[in-house]
């Protein structure tokens, strides 16, 4: 990846509520540099107004989709669009939960699929793929005419933050997301209104009071997937920002000394430690489908809150009562000394796609994603998975289910106070391995606040000192 001049503050300014929900009056997004993989071996056709990327019309296309919370029906819609546009091409879509297991060996062999939905627990480290020149640059796609309007480039139909999330320094954009993911404390509005007769807690004292009342009725205040304890970051991250401000988040992103030992980090860990100590947390759920097990317990009324992302509305639809009124809440303020206000939200573009550098049909892969960014495909994506697409204005005027509606309202309420953990993209192991391991012990009461902070800082220092890992530097 190398050093980068990505300015995190600029990304945050651009990823405002107005920009996420409508066409914003902001400057152009950061451009992606020329480069990426060598596409000389890839199939190439004749460029035209109808075929601006020069797709070879009879070239085979293979797409790998992560079969998780969104399953793969939304992708099949795009694959069918591709088949209709290029009827002479053999088009194959594969759905799997094991992206890295199935795709990584093919990248090494130089015989990869043409487009990969690089998501899920078995995700490939995009930073390493970039460093190893296994991922292609999206510049040609971003500068191509959009599907719906040839006068508008693809990059200009994407919500702010989408390009920046996949940009690695001056080397280019190697990953593009298709959804807006809203993280936070998910709950049933019906339970709060009718069972507990309380309002959503805006302070941590209120949160403890709600949990106490829930316990008196035989309901746990919280639950989480014990098999994937890293989900706790979905609730804790925005709280880190609220308590200590953006400087705390920047310290994490840039692997600064003592980044994980800030007083704000300590305060947030202590708040969640109180939930554990008072036995307000429903634990367990450590099997292969831990997240499904925890979500099912939650939708069936065993717990009030669960840390999750906006995919949960689709993923838990089979067990969610019709009158559940699924809602996302921002993390409560700790106290009056908080730097950022209640409503601060962790809401980045999500569900990434990468283009293998050695793809035989590189242009076809880009064309498939160009179709994905059409309003038709974006609206279908919303209908299939109840999640906000990364295409500006795609769902304007549509009827929204409760979870999506609450996500939209949370984004509007957050305004400029939207935060994104870039360290999750830049140094995947910090989240997938180290934070996961720490929270696994912490949420069981087997690790103290100090031990959790020390362990995370050691992990941060380990990566900072590793000469084999390229670092992202401040501009």
From TrEMBL:
**What is the originating organism of this protein?**
Streptomyces iconiensis
Q: Can the keyword Transport be found in this entry's annotation? A: yes
Keywords of the record, alphabetical order, are:
Signal, Transport
Give the chief site where it resides: other
Under the heading NCBIfam families, the entry gives:
chitin_NgcE (TIGR03851), TAT_signal_seq (TIGR01409)
Location relative to the cell:
Cell envelope
Coding gene? ngcE
Ranges for the region named Disordered are: 32-51
- Give TM segment ranges: none
Q: Name one Pfam family in it.
A: SBP_bac_1
Is Lyase a UniProt keyword of this protein?
no
Organism ancestry? Bacteria, Bacillati, Actinomycetota, Actinomycetes, Kitasatosporales
Q: What is this protein called?
A: N-acetylglucosamine/diacetylchitobiose ABC transporter substrate-binding protein
The Swiss-Prot or TrEMBL record describes its family as follows: Belongs to the bacterial solute-binding protein 1 family.
Point to the regions of Basic and acidic residues compositional bias: 37-47
